[in-house]
Amino acid sequence: MTRVGDWEPGDVVLGLYEVLDVVHSGGMGVVHRVRHRGWRVDMAVKTPRSKTVRTPTGRARFEAEAATWVKLGLHPHTVACAYVRTIDDIPRVFAEWVDGGSLAQAVSGRGLYAGGGRAALGRILDTAVQMAWGLAHAHEAGLVHMDVKPANVMLEPDGTAKVTDFGVAKARAAADESAPARPPDGPVGVSFGGMTPAYCSPEQASAAVDRSVRLTTATDVWSWAVTVLEMFAGGRPWRHGPAAGDALDAFGRDGGARDPRIPPMPADVAVLLRECFAADPAARPASLADVAARLCGLYPELVGAAYERPVPRPARLLADGLSNQALSFLDLGLIEEAEQLWSRALDTDPYHLPSVYNLGLHRWRSGRQTGEELVTDVEAALAADGGGPAGHGALLLGAAQLERHEDERAGELLREASAADPDSADVAAALTAWEHRPPRVHVGLDDHDADVSAVASSADGGLVLSGDRGGRLLLWAPARGRRRVRRTLTKRGQPVTAVAMDAAGTVGLAVRDGAAEVWDLGRGRRRELEKIDGDTAVTAVAVSGDGRYVATGSASGVIRIWESGTPRYVGTVDRHTGAISALALSHDGGRALSASFGGLMGDGDGTVRTWDVASRTCTATLVGPPRGTLGGSPVRKYPMDIAAVSPDARCAVVAWWRGPLTLWDARRLTVVSEVDHTWRSVGSLAVSSVGPTVVTAGDAGVPVQAWDATTGRCLRTLDQQLPSHGRWVRTATVSADGQVVVLGIGGGHVAVRSLPAADYQAPWCYARPRSAREVTGARDVFGELMDRVDGLTAQGRLSAAAEALRSAQEMPGFARHPDLRAAWARVGAHGRRSALLGAWPLYAFDGNGVFTRPLALAMTGDGLVSATGRWTGEVEVWDFAAGERLHVFDRGTGGGAQDIQFALDERLLVVLTAQGTVRLLSLTDGNMYLFTTELGAISAFALTPTDDRVLMGYESGDLRLLRLTTGEILREVRAHDGAVHTVALSPDGRHAATLGGIRPDVDLSGNPFVDHDVKLWSLDADRPRWALGSRARYERLDFSADSRTLFVSGGRSVGAWDVGDGALRFSVDRAGGTHVPGEPAIAFSADGALAATPDHDVLRVWATDTGQTRQTLRLPKTPQAFALSADGTFAITGDWDRQVRVWDVSSGRCLRTLESHRAPVYQATLNRDGTLLATADMDSRLCAWELAWDYTFPPESPE
């Protein structure tokens, strides 16, 4: 640990902080003046002596109290704490540097009294008022200073006074556990026990020897008065603060200070100080804000001039300050508070680069997002603002890529950052780490003729043993750059189902047809292991690190050990009750580690066991956490549980389904960590004890990823490094040293890739602190602009209002302020969208195992409220923008929701359930109602837009028009012989359209592509006006805005049919076959003038009156999800590539690509004004986005 005193003038700490001076050095700590080389700003660094924080409790208390200063925020009359940062394992407070020295220096040096007379009196009163204001701010924040004195009041050259050292005095007292309590009779000018004896109150002196004494803000009132008395006395003629009242009386009797430069104390000030020196704390002035007000009132009479300082306001932090606060709390271990602050910062500015980067880095390191998501978010923030200072964005992105081991991209970015800022220490450190990275292993082998089914590697990954389903068994040396096979052990035979090898790659073990065979890999010779009577098929194998022993695990749970050279049978261990799925031996063969997890066949016992081979005993067992009960007993295993053991038998990992990711130390027989995970459909799992690093893989829809097993952090996604045909991983192993992963891939391919090592950590991003005066001034200007916008909008001067908004947008820290965004939405409602200013995520919710599939989602027109269905039947109502749950409707009859719609001015939710019931959920009183009917299950419904009528189709083929409010049946007809699948109502409420089966059993035995028909009905008639035959089951029906056209979307086209006579007016081509529920078929603008439909690799936007194409949006693939804005100016698409794109319809340009989904996107929903967007993917992840727009307005007539 570096000693505090080791910082000397001229030193440069971390390549960033240049030490200019040692300002103060005392028994409790040191204050350095440093210059931040990046910002070219001086700062005060306050560092406690190591003895103060040498115990864990003392350190924790110091950090907690230092956090109180951070929480204090910005005020014109307190010294701002920029952040707390741990350097050399000591927490240090970085505060603003105040250049005019302390009040103590101004008193002793007599600078406070320059000019004498009224000038000096005015300066004293001004300082007293400012001190009172600063302390009052602290008191309002719940903080008692407890060490108020002239040395803790800093003065700017212009006379601004700032109270400093908040929380630090209290922290010193709390942390100095080893010092014996003693009364304040020693040196009186230095702090002791969280106070300075010469300035402390009577109750604080008592608290020094009696810890039960409780201190309040009244103790600061006393110390403030002592400090004021010292300003009038020109020194301190008393030893102890509790005697200050007597000293005030003596001072009055003696006629004041003897120095002629010091003005006498006015009588009214003396009266005020006597009140502050009341022995009873409750009798002192209750508020220093009131004390300041009294002095302000006295000032004109005493000084002969008006007091010009306005009453200060606390400066609300902008994103920069909030992010720095968050870093301080993170450094102090206050993780929840840090995340809340970053959330507030991103509410203020969704693209604030330090917050996006810091929060993303924190979430990635804690396993709650991927490195890819971090990079995507940082790139989006850089695109929005250009990266700030030269090279800064390149540094942050390059550092993140370097920690992700994306070395090629990291090198490009870091060289760019170095060229822009050659003196950056962070860039230099990152480039040094990059230059020392070992070459990446990127080797493949294609010599297998069938799918690779088993792989193993030597300890360093230098040799690989691989077998395939055709029986071929190969040995090769990828780490030495050799792509050709080193030895073909067998060319064909029974499928190889498992392999293992020793650390040096000299002994191998393979399994075919349930039997194991030992290989001398150097000579290519095979020996069969002895078949023991009663043995079942071998399912897993292992070789000790030294190659002396081999082991097999069987389908019956028996583990047998042999000497490899003989091979002589050594013995059996037998406690598993299910098939062995993974097996390992320690280096000397003395310890075995096994897992029994059976996958979907359920033939594992769901445990991990470690064994002492010599005694043939099980030394420990890891079982799963209870996840429900069955027959009154806890359920501890599920078929979806998956486990792996490290090749050296040191550790095991288990991903419990609906449970944690558990890391187990097989040597210490203890659980090392349990973290949340979201792994699904993982087919291959491998682990190395180094790191420990875990690799997951599966079929083509499961990414190949490397993880930190202790945190659940995704270190890297390897998909992009794999051949395009090789995304289906059949088997995987990680070398014992954790350096490489070997993947056996479909198509006969083996891939060997480097794994990331923990050799570099990207730095945090601290924002340049801004003073309270700067922040308050900026807020005042911004507020004036917002007031101007409101005034101009009220006058109808929309273009001028927009210009004022653009001016506000240019202000640093306010470019995406929520007030600005809300104002743009208000003003923009009267204009036409012209440009996308930004699009950012509000939140993402992992709904796997929670939401219905597909997700049943409804959103109000303004986007403020949304509703989602749970698969268990509950319906949740949300504040959509905030992501806060407002209400949960309990599960009712019918199961999960299939369709949810708002009705009756969005006061009611209409929910169609999976079992064919309709529930009415009132948003006004929370009541639930159920539509019951003798007709059986309801299969579809449609709402009239202008009243309370609802059209319901039934599986019986019936059609009913009812009133939502009363349930009254208005019309009823037999619409189809089979079930009704789709219904639609025309906007004018006069017509209905239905799609249903042509006979009762059509859905069981018919052709779903032709055995249905579409019928057009007048709601006052009992027979259809016309019908279309040979239709598919899942076609969609929509009326045009003027109710004259029915659009039938299905097959390879959208047909526009005349409502009056059933004639086909035109058709529009679309991609794919039949429309499937949950997938979009068509989207309309709010006025119905435009529609959008997918075609091959495009989204086609066309006019609904003619079918003429207005724009073709060209995409990488045919979109799976899409939406059209209400005004038809922009479109949203989602696709298999997991990306959401925002398009300008007029130009056909992609305006923004949004990334947050981890599975293909299949749903997109926009609110009416196009500022809120909901998207969902096939893994039930729901993402909420905000879009900000610029607008154009009609020219304003001259006044």
Characterise the protein shown here.
This is Protein kinase. Strands 1-2-3-4-6-5 form a six-stranded antiparallel β-sheet. The protein is built from 20 helices and 70 strands. Helix 10 (about 320-330) packs antiparallel against helix 11 (about 335-350), helix 15 (about 405-420) runs antiparallel to helix 16 (about 425-435) and helix 18 (about 800-810) packs antiparallel against helix 19. It has about 1200 residues and is α+β, with helices and mostly antiparallel strands. The model is unreliable at about 170-195 (pLDDT under 50). Among the domains are: about 5-305, Transferase(Phosphotransferase) domain 1 (Transferase(Phosphotransferase), domain 1); about 440-755, Methylamine Dehydrogenase, Chain H. The protein is about 20% helix and about 35% strand.
List keywords for this structure.
70 strands, alpha+beta, Methylamine Dehydrogenase, Chain H, 1199 residues, Transferase(Phosphotransferase), domain 1, Protein kinase, six-stranded antiparallel beta sheet, four-stranded antiparallel beta sheet
Topology, element by element:
Layout: E1 12-13, E2 17-25, E3 29-36, E4 41-48, H1 56-71, E5 81-87, E6 90-96, H2 103-108, H3 117-140, E7 153-155, E8 161-163, H4 168-175, H5 202-207, H6 218-233, H7 244-253, H8 267-276, H9 288-303, H10 319-331, H11 335-348, H12 353-365, H13 371-385, H14 392-403, H15 407-420, H16 425-435, E9 442-445, E10 452-457, E11 464-468, E12 473-476, E13 485-490, E14 496-501, E15 507-512, E16 515-520, E17 525-528, E18 538-543, E19 549-554, E20 558-563, E21 569-574, E22 582-585, E23 591-596, E24 607-612, E25 617-623, E26 629-630, E27 633-634, E28 642-645, E29 651-655, E30 661-665, E31 670-675, E32 682-688, E33 693-698, E34 705-708, E35 713-717, E36 729-734, E37 740-745, E38 749-754, H17 772-794, H18 798-809, H19 818-828, E39 832-846, E40 857-859, E41 865-869, E42 875-879, E43 884-889, E44 897-903, E45 908-913, E46 918-922, E47 928-931, E48 938-943, E49 949-954, E50 958-963, E51 969-974, E52 980-985, E53 991-997, H20 1002-1005, E54 1012-1018, E55 1026-1031, E56 1036-1039, E57 1045-1050, E58 1053-1058, E59 1064-1069, E60 1083-1084, ...
Helix pairs in contact: 1-4, 3-6, 3-9, 10-11, 11-12, 12-13, 13-14, 14-15, 14-16, 15-16, 17-18, 17-19, 18-19
